[in-house]
Fold:
Amino acid sequence: MAETKREIERKYEATTDTELPDLTGVPGIGDIVGKGVAELDAVYHDTAELRLAADGITLRRRTGGGDEGWHLKFPVSAGIRDEIRAPLSRSLPRALAGLVRSRTRGAELVPVVRLRSSRDVHHLLDGQGELLAELSVDSVRAERLTDGGGTASWTEIEVELADDADPAILDAVDKRLRKAGVSPSAATSKLARALEETGPGVPQPSEAEAPEAKAEKAPKAAKAAKAVRDRGARLGPEDAGEYVLAYLGEQRDAIVALDPAVRRDLPDAVHQMRVATRRMRSAFKTFRKIVDRGVTDPLGDELKWLAGELGAARDQEVLAERLRDRIDAMPRTLVLGPVRGRLRIWGAAHGSDARRRSVAVLDTDRYLALLDSLDALLDAPPLLKDATAGPADTLPRAVIKDYGRLSARVDHALGLPAGHDRDLAMHDARKAAKRARYAAEAATPALGKPAKRFAKAMKAVQTVLGDHQDSVVARDTIRDLGIQAHAAGETAFTWGLLFGHEEASAADRERELPGVWENASEPALRQALAG
Structure:
């Protein structure tokens, strides 16, 4: 069974002659205890193209020390990684193989580097003898295991924070080490240094980023756009197509980066991955005069399929939380019968099914083919004439066209009487609001504050319509739970109250919509967007 450990550490350059300064004077440190020298032998695995290393991910099989086994490390932020461990075995454990599948895409994982380290370990303790951090001096010997590889050796100092210890201790130790002339390591990891020093490798990753941060930047997309220009294609550095490709690359990167987070059931991972699929699909539609829809339409269909498969888990999670909050807000005297227990049973049953479905789809050939197709799209984008136009000309027109679609749907919804048809119309308007918002967000890097303000206005409309739709969906589930309670001989009184609360909430959103829409449809917002 794999286990996860949050690794927070600092690395420093050293030589065989480096002397550690006295750290007992560092605030908080009461004692330093030597734990002896451990001999570690680690073989790092990657694809032939070093796809894991390119994303700052390390996968190793290590013997020696107190934690021998398989270790898979994902970057979280600078100096912080999540290390997922599995027991020592001859072959890569299935659970770890799944976590890197969005990068490997079926490519074979092979040994690429062997690191043998002599680790001189010291425990930094507080005044009560509790472990604050582990400091080690590592003498490393690296051997490239692929053709044409060489060897390298170096010495480094590593300071790793103990579980639940205050990270401030790392700053204090860092200050003392720097004062003694010890400088931080230029390499982000031992593997990165080994790849650089033992043969042809990959560019060393910059400071690692969490999946959420990667979704806000586009390192791969920038490379893709540059590759288009380098091939003599039509894009220039300030063309509209440049911005669209960058945005599409952000979403592709987010899907790939969030895949292991979904498998690990990390908070909000399914939601964020689903958002990335929707943003990309929406961009295909919004910018169909920039990127050929003959190519993107089939990809949009596949993204819709993926979002639908992921949606079961996300929708169930949101609904369960909404109903719990509703029950918690009720006076105790109105919560009659085993209401919370029935909701927990419903949540557990539906949640586990939805969770299995979300993970299962990530192991399908169809999903991996989609990832490959997205890569191919960015490697050779099917650009149209408008891709070479200035962003101030092309992007506002695309955003305002999506706004017109939203406007028509809101007007239609507001013109209907309350009831089923209006509920459906408001749901359609919600989807249009989301598309208009995504369009403005995609254009923000090029258009600046006007696009940002426009996106904020569209988000306000989306929020009202989204809460209305959540209420509609909640009422269906509450009705089902009330019927089940009645059939089991329980009182359905509380379920009836919940149903009424949701009806009132939906009515409130319907009354709120005209005012929110009036603000969002202010002509000045569109005029500023168009310049």
About this structure: The beta strands are 3-14, 31-46, 58-63, 69-77, 80-86, 110-125, 131-144, 151-161. Residues 229 and 235 are 6 Å apart (CA to CA). The two ends are 58 Å apart (CA to CA).
